[in-house]
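Exercise 7.
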Amino acid sequence: MESSGKVGLMRFLGVVAILGVLVAPPAFAKKVQKNTVVLTTETATRAAPPAITDTTNQWLLDLSDGGRVTILLRPDAAPLMVERIKTLTRQHFYDGLTFHRVIDGFMAQGGDPKGDGTGGSTLPDVKAEFNYLPHVRGAVAAARAQADDSANSQFYIVLQPKLALDHKYTVFGRVLDGMPYVDAIERGEPPANPTRILHAYIASDNPPAYQAAPPPAVNAGAVLGPVTLPGALRAGDLLVFNDTRVIPAQLEGMRGAARVGATLHKREGPRRWRAFVRNAKRVRDGDTIDFGAGVTAMASDRGADGSIALDFAGDEPVELLLERAGRMPLPPYIAAKRPTDTRDADDYQTMFARRAGAVAAPTAALHFTPALLDALAAAGIGHVTLTLHVGAGTFLPVKADDTDDHVMHAEWGRIDRATADRLNATRAAGGRVISVGTTSLRLIESAADADGIIHPFEGDTAIFITPGYRFRGIDGLVTNFHLPRSTLFMLVSALMGLDRMQAAYAHAIETGYRFYSYGDASLLLP
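Solution. The predicted structure, written as tokens, is:
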């Protein structure tokens, strides 16, 4: 990615996750669970991984730096290598061996009786079992020589994501506990004072109890895995929610004998809305579309993006017309599976929804409840609201080869003076401004000046955030997991870095997180 923010199409590896906190899915998630998209057909044929409590597949390494590391072995993905690890462990092969090659920011390699990377056990080499498990932080993989089928006894633990190695080495496990002790392994090729494996055990073999020393103070980098709110935040932080309310913005109607569909996406006047129209080639300027229930609109002003302006007839507020004739604009991957129902009018709203005008929900806030807000407040973590009426254009894929050629659709937003003052006061006092959802983030960044001061704002914003962007008004983000090739994935990559987000998404796919509007959420703290 170029530092100017000009980037080519984002490369998505088919892997998925979170940097920080997994927030519980909303209570109604079971309703839509059957509609969750399967991201890769490979998942349908995978064997089930062992439970993390399965002691027959827990590999314990007692290290000379004072800690016990627990690794979950994955016979579902690499049965031959897992069997080799168990055999050598029960032969006490690993007891006393060093980590002979430890590269900062990459990996710690051990399991060589010669201590120089050339040795192995007396057992035959193990055939390659390259699989879908990613080289994320804490992954454990088999080291090998040039030949694919030359793994034997050596292994390495990944310190920081290295997804370029996926499908080239056999990943056979993942650290469950003790990663701070892995981070403390002496660096070097070889290290001057190498860290040793004092003893290795399989947990089901009833190893002796181990009293670990306090974890060393090492910067462990990104946290990949579930934690809780408010524990992942600190007193003085401020969460920012979007109080927009989703309207029934999808309409089905007739233009003469032709059936057309319309999805409103931005209000342009008291009775005029910009809309994306299905079967738009059958609609000309001046045509009247009958949406039923006494609701009609005249089409005009076709835009370069293919959208059409709709002027609604009559004197009733358009909101009332939509209540009669419209339906909730559920995400396409849900709407394709089932029709909308009466529950969607409430389910597809956050607890903060007050101001009607959005055609999609700011779904990160679906994870929050009054009880959670009370717990956050008791921990000294406050919250404020602003308004950004989310348009359908936000979720359109990027089709241009150069992101400079992608046009964001404008959305209307508002930050009042009292909210702007509180945001500025939070940062001035050392607290962090954490947006809940990309919508509130984009509005804050639109209202912030070059010095990071957030000003009152009212009007349209079409801000497009890509890698290379310098964030001015926010310090963190709570967000769901997004589509590849989307402006939203580009935004989170701009905040956290593309490599870290790919590693995070890899973790999410590996461990079964749910994606998209009714899915799980992540806390991103750069």
